Every structure is written in C-alpha cells, then in structure tokens.
C-alpha cells in the first residue's frame, strides 16, 4: 500500500532506484557466492598451507558483506 | 663335525643372501626410479611467482613419493594494470565529489540513505574486482614435480583447466623473452613440447625463464641446451 501511495505521489524515482539497487546487490551476492565456491574448489586442486585460509577468509568476508548490504538495503531503503 | 660346520656356514650364507635380496627388493618398491638430491624446502608466500623446491605446496592426486621441484606463476609485475585500475577506482569517488560540486551536479533526487548504500556497494564491488583479479593470477600455477609437469589455468572465475604430462613425454623445452618490459623485469614465456595428447604446455610470463628451462631440461636429460 505504501509503495502504491508512493507511485501515486510521484515518488517513482526512489522506487526505481531501490529496485535497481536491490537487484544489483542480489546478483552481486550470487556472483560472490560463485567466487567463494571457486576459491574453495581451487584450493582443493592446488593449495599452499599458509595462504589457503587467508583467501577463503577474504572470499567469505566479501560474501557476508554483500549479503549484509543486500539485507540492510531491503530493510532500510 | 666339519660337515655340520660347513652346513651351518652355507645356511648362514643363504640367509644372508636371502636377506640381502629381500632388502634390495624392498628398496626397489619404496624408492622412485629417478633419484633427486634432498634439497632444503623453501616456503612460498602469497605473492611468490617463482620457487624452487617449495615446501608448502600440495596438489590434488599427488603421489606419495612425488615432490614438487618447481612452482611458477606469472611475474607479479603482470598485475600492474589491474592494480592501477583498482587504485584509480578506489579514489574515483573522492575525485568525482569536488568535480560534481564545481560543475553544479547534485544528487538531490536521491536521499542520503541511497548515497551511503551506493557508496558502500561501489567500494565492495571494487574490492571484489581486485580480489577476483588477484585469485585469477594466484591460481594460474605451473608445477614441475619429480614425475610430471602440471599446468593449472584459471580465469574469469568460471573457467578452469588442469593439464599434466609425465616427464618421459616431454620432448623439448624452450623460452622466449621479447620486449623491453620483459627484459627489464626478467620474465618470459616457456614452451614445453610433449609427445602426449596436449602437444605443448605454455608457462606464460614466468620469472627467470632460463632457470625454468634449465630445470626441466635437466629432468629430461637436455641440460646442455643452454
């Protein structure tokens, strides 16, 4: 109803921007999930004892950040 | 009495011979065909692109007696372009802000919340871009082991290719080093020709290419080429 009222009030720009942002953020989260899975699988093929954990942690942090941003945007925007 | 003595001596001799043969047989089973001197293992760090006898590297389907003799990636200087792009993208919003103010371009149609979220998203995207470019470089690895040569290609996150050939199938190894940049930073392309299904293996832009050729050449018995 609120969204409908916004349309009526001519606040379309905000809604379009919000949908665009949420779509981008969602797709980006999926992309980072693929990156994380690839890092894990490549570490299984060739791995360095010291670096594997660092790379996995970075990939996981990026994924968590992206998902958090998406969820925060979904709630706040 | 002397007969018994002789018999004992023969027995001892037989036992000794048998024991010796058994030992030899065990040795044949446990040791690889090619013998490599035990060298001190070196550790590979996150930005290493060349390491002889690396200690920490392991790979899938590695045999028990198989040691990694050489580990190479593209020279780190080949990452110069994307690092520069990344730095530029990181400082771009700082540049754009004052320029937008000077040109009187305002984002007043967007609320402050949107601007904050877009900025966060932008920086996350740039950091992810840098990370993806880094792992593309990091996982493009070539290994020379006591048994074979392995070439792992990884690009654009979704493409990966793993090729390997045994050292017996390697026919020739050569390298090319062209251009000022490559000569200055001392890296080049190594070409390994084989008699296997994959006719050649390319190690692109690897540091110390003559050392790589020398090591592989030594393993296949063409050490005197250089």
Nutshell version of this structure?
The model of chain A has no long low-confidence stretch (mean pLDDT 86).
Describe the structure.
- The complex is a heterodimer of chains A (77) and B (226).
- Chain A contains 3 helices and 1 strand; from the N terminus they run ααβα.
- Chain A has 77 residues and is mostly helical.
- The longest helix of chain A is centred in the middle third of the chain and has 34 residues.
- Chain A is elongated, with a radius of gyration of 18 Å.
- Chain A starts with a helix and ends with a helix.
- With 226 residues, chain B is of the alpha+beta class.
- In chain B, a hairpin with a 2-residue loop joins strand 4 and strand 5.
- In chain B, the strands form 2 sheets. In chain B, strands 1-3-4-5-6 form a 5-stranded antiparallel sheet. In chain B, strands 7-8-9 form a 3-stranded antiparallel sheet.
- Chain B has a domain of 57 residues.
The CA-CA distance between the termini of chain A, in Å, is 16 Å
Shape estimate of chain A: elongated
Which class of secondary structure composition applies to the elements of chain B? Answer: alpha+beta
Tally of individual helices of chain B: 5
Strand content of chain B: 15-25%
Q: How much helix is in the residues of chain B?
A: 40-55%
Main sheet of chain B: which strands, in order across? Answer: 1-3-4-5-6
Oligomeric status: heterodimer
Q: Give the distance, in angstroms, between the N- and C-terminal Cα atoms of chain B.
A: 69 Å
Instruction: Give the overall form of chain B.
Output: elongated
User: Helix and strand string of chain A, N-terminal first?
Assistant: HHEH
Q: Could you say which structural class the secondary elements and strand pairing of chain A correspond to?
A: mainly alpha
Biggest sheet statistics of chain A? none
Low-confidence runs of at least 5 consecutive residues of chain A: none
Q: State which percent range the strand residues of chain A make up.
A: under 5%
Order of SSEs of chain B: HEEEHHEEEEHEEH
Count of extended strands of chain B: 9
Largest interface, counted by CB within 8 Å of the partner chain's CB:
A-B, 36 and 35 residues
Number of E-type strands of chain A: 1
* Residue-averaged pLDDT of chain B: 81
- Mean pLDDT over the residues of chain A: 86
């Amino acid at each position: 109803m609120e969204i409908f009222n916004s349309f009526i009030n001519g606040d379309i720009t905000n809604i379009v921007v919000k949908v665009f942002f949420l779509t981008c953020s969602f797709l980006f989260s999926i992309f980072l999930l693929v990156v994380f899975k690839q890092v894990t699988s490549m570490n299984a093929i060739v791995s360095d004892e010291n670096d594997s954990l660092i790379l996995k942690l970075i990939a996981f942090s990026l994924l968590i950040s992206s998902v958090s941003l998406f969820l925060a945007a979904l709630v706040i925007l | 009495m002397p007969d018994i003595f002789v018999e004992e001596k023969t027995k001892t001799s037989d036992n000794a011979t048998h024991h010796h043969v058994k030992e030899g047989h065990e040795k044949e089973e446990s040791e690889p065909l090619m013998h490599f001197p035990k060298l001190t293992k070196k550790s590979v760090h996150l930005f290493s692109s060349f390491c002889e006898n690396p200690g920490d590297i392991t790979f899938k389907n590695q045999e028990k007696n198989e040691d990694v003799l050489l580990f190479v990636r593209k020279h780190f200087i080949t990452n110069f372009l994307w690092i520069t792009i990344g730095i530029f993208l990181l400082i771009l919003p700082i540049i754009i802000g004052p320029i937008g103010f000077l040109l009187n371009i305002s984002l007043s149609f967007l609320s402050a919340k949107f601007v904050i979220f877009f900025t966060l998203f932008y920086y996350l995207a740039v950091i992810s871009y840098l990370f993806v470019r880094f792992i593309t470089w990091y996982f493009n690895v070539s290994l020379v082991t006591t048994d074979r040569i392995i070439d792992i290609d990884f690009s654009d996150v979704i493409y990966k290719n793993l090729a390997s050939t045994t050292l017996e199938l390697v026919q020739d190894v050569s390298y090319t080093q062209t251009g000022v940049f490559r000569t200055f930073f001392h890296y080049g392309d190594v070409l390994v020709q084989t008699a296997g299904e994959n006719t050649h293996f390319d190690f692109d832009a690897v540091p110390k290419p003559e050392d790589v050729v020398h090591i592989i050449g030594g393993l296949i018995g063409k050490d005197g080429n250089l």
